[in-house]
Write a sequence for this structure.
């Protein structure tokens, strides 16, 4: 194609068309605004703040003040269980709230129509949001908070805890969040209202723990049992056998299905 | 691929939403380097047509081509060469005007950065937003967003400019600026725009397409539309003894009718002609060469597009 005044024409083809430009915009919404440090601070308070309380503040209070029965502290979970269980339960809610409106608002405002009237693939539109949010969540939710928690837990035990299992546990946490990220994106494409997305996604996030009590088999094919599984992995107590890994495989598979549905539907959706 | 001079060509293009037939067997043609006004009442199917051409909607049946490329299978290639301004445009509110243009440009060009920034400056100047270039878009008025919309539509030197209500939200001066921009761009591009402002269409367009309830009512050169179904009428003001020449004019084979009325100290004639070419060539010389009369005023009666539009749309006409 001819160029104008030396301009180099974008020759990208296929599903990647427009991805770089869209990702750049989505990424800048994370790192060139207050989002990254607000999210970091919020999850630091929710997860590591609680961990600090359990590991240091409560024992200090117990040791310092009379009338506090040390036996009462025995039921408090250890640092690994406390952090990863709390993170695996609360962070999915944060992901859903963060992602809600990410596509619906663009459809409502008309910016989706504006962008898609340019040489952009609809797949790239979805992927740009997925990748930018996945990166932001990985850094501010998982890596940062796990790193701080590792320091706190190691300090409380006066020795570093085994790093390899800890990293495995963190990756499992990331996988669980990825499940909710792709679920929310898919719902954003399928529904026209934010309330519908919130209702379904939060219902899954909050109801999952209840559902596996009613239907234990769900623990093998969903991330609902991750709050219990991750501490086991971090503590190196993983039982042998395929069944333990089935939830990981199912969660990864379902995440990819959600993403595929989101992309397929968005490619066929009228604007 | 259709090899002709039409930038847009549709063949029985239809779109149904549930039970609603938004567009019915549209056969639209837009020639290269034309300024085509796309008219119709609200809900006629204008925006649906535009969205189908851009691949934002899929047709229920029929086909369409832009630059000879299929609107369904080659939509991306079409959009590389099109500039689009939507009705009531919205942009990412956190962006400045300059950011919007840069973001748009980067879908079309990868560099160099300097050339892209120069193009952005050129566009900002064209639409009169240079001084507000670094202000966030969420603080823009409707007219300013419209101007920015025109700038972003033009940034990729499009071969086809599709504008949905480009003069909406603009004051009269702004409207005039938009019309001037469109006239200036005609040499470089083809312009297909929808509007409700019939006066603008008559001033700047050379073709008109009229849609009503999803059906094509009329399309063609604007002059043909204005003269369709009626004789061309010349309005002439004369001074002197007009009796002699009056009979001579009436006897001309291409004169259908001559109506006369006094006008101050002169006479005004309205002459309906059946052969516009002969009238254009011969009528004035006949009058000027007649002894004893002075031609004070000579011209063709301009029909208003609004009159034609109301007759076609209000009368429930369908078809070409």
């Amino acid at each position: 194609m001819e160029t104008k005044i030396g301009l180099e024409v974008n020759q990208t083809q296929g599903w990647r068309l427009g991805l770089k430009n869209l990702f750049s915009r989505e990424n800048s919404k994370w790192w060139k605004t207050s989002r990254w440090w607000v999210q970091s601070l919020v999850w630091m308070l929710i997860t590591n703040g609680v961990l600090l309380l359990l590991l240091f503040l409560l024992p200090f209070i117990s040791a310092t003040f009379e009338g506090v029965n040390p036996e009462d502290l025995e039921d408090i979970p250890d640092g690994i269980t406390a952090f990863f269980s709390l993170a695996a339960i609360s962070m999915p809610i944060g992901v859903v709230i963060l992602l809600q409106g990410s596509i619906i608002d663009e459809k409502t405002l008309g910016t989706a129509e504006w962008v898609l009237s340019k040489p952009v693939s609809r797949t790239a539109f979805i992927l740009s949001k997925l990748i930018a949010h996945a990166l932001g969540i990985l850094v501010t939710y998982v890596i940062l908070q796990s790193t701080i928690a590792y320091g706190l837990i190691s300090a409380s035990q006066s020795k570093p805890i085994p790093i390899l299992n800890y990293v495995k546990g963190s990756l499992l946490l990331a996988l669980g969040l990825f499940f909710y990220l792709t679920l929310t994106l898919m719902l954003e494409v399928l529904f026209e209202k934010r309330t519908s997305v919130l209702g379904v996604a939060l219902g899954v996030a909050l109801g999952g723990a209840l559902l596996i009590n009613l239907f234990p088999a769900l623990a093998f094919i969903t991330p609902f049992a991750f709050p219990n599984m991750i501490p086991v992995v971090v503590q190196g107590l993983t039982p042998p056998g395929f069944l333990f890994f089935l939830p990981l495989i199912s969660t990864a598979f379902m995440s990819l299905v959600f993403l595929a549905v989101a992309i397929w539907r968005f490619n066929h959706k009228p604007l | 691929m259709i090899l002709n001079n039409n930038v847009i060509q549709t063949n029985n293009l239809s779109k149904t939403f549930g039970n609603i037939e938004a567009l019915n067997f549209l056969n639209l043609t837009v020639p290269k380097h034309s300024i085509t006004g796309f008219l119709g009442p609200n809900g006629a199917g204008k925006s649906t047509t535009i969205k189908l051409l851009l691949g934002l909607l899929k047709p229920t049946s029929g086909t369409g081509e832009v630059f000879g490329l299929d609107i369904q299978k080659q939509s991306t290639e079409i959009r590389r060469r099109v500039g689009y301004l939507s009705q009531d445009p919205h942009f990412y509110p956190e962006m400045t005007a300059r950011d919007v243009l840069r973001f748009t440009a980067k879908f079309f060009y990868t560099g160099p950065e300097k050339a892209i920034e120069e193009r952005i400056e050129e566009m900002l100047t064209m639409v009169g937003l240079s001084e507000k270039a670094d202000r966030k878009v969420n603080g823009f008025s409707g007219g300013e967003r419209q101007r920015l919309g025109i700038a972003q539509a033009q940034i990729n030197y499009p071969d086809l400019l599709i504008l949905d209500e480009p003069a909406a939200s603009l004051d009269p001066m702004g409207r005039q600026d938009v019309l001037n921009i469109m006239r200036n761009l005609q040499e470089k591009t083809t312009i297909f725009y929808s509007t409700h402002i019939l006066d603008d269409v008559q001033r700047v367009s050379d073709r008109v397409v009229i849609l009503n309830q999803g059906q094509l009512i009329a399309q063609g050169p604007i002059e043909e539309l204005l003269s369709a179904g009626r004789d061309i009428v010349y309005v002439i003001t004369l001074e002197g003894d007009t009796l002699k020449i009056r009979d001579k004019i009436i006897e001309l084979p291409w004169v259908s009718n001559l109506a006369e009325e006094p006008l101050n100290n002169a006479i005004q004639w309205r002459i309906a002609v059946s052969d516009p070419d002969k009238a254009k060539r011969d009528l004035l010389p006949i009058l000027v060469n007649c002894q004893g009369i002075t031609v004070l005023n000579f011209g063709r009666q301009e029909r208003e597009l609004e009159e034609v539009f109301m007759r076609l749309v209000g009368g429930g006409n369908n078809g070409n």
